[in-house]
Design a protein that fits this description.
142 residues; mainly beta; OB fold (Dihydrolipoamide Acetyltransferase, E2P); six-stranded mixed β-sheet; five-stranded mixed β-sheet; 2 helices; 11 strands; 51% strand; globular; CheW-like_dom_sf
Length: 142
Amino acid sequence: MTGKILTFYLGGSLCGIDIVFAKEINRNVKYTTVPGGASHVVGLLNLRGQVVTLFDLAQILHLNQKQEDKQTKCIILKGLFQGDHIGFFIDKLAEVIDITPDMCELPPANIKNLQGRFISEIVKYNKEMILMLDINKIFDAI
């Protein structure tokens, strides 16, 4: 991959998504829970008149997320999924970085379990590894 990525921490892991998917980042969001909804659906958010479905991405990826941080920060994605806006909670926002193909590697074969199938590549950046999430695969699967 070449281009800009938005990085964030989720369940203690440094993750990233292609910045073209990101619409905005919200803090301290107030949302409405969905009674009887799936466990990975946190609730609905009214974002300037548009209904946004909020997901627990840490649960989908089977990562541990700090409960006290869960309601503070979320990333809203553009309406790329049947025109619907969706969002997910993160632990901590990191930074936007430029990546080049020489920074990227395919994920090792031994992480192709349930959560590993949602990782498109590993990015080496400043002695850290960023798990690049395949947003399309994640939200097509739920």
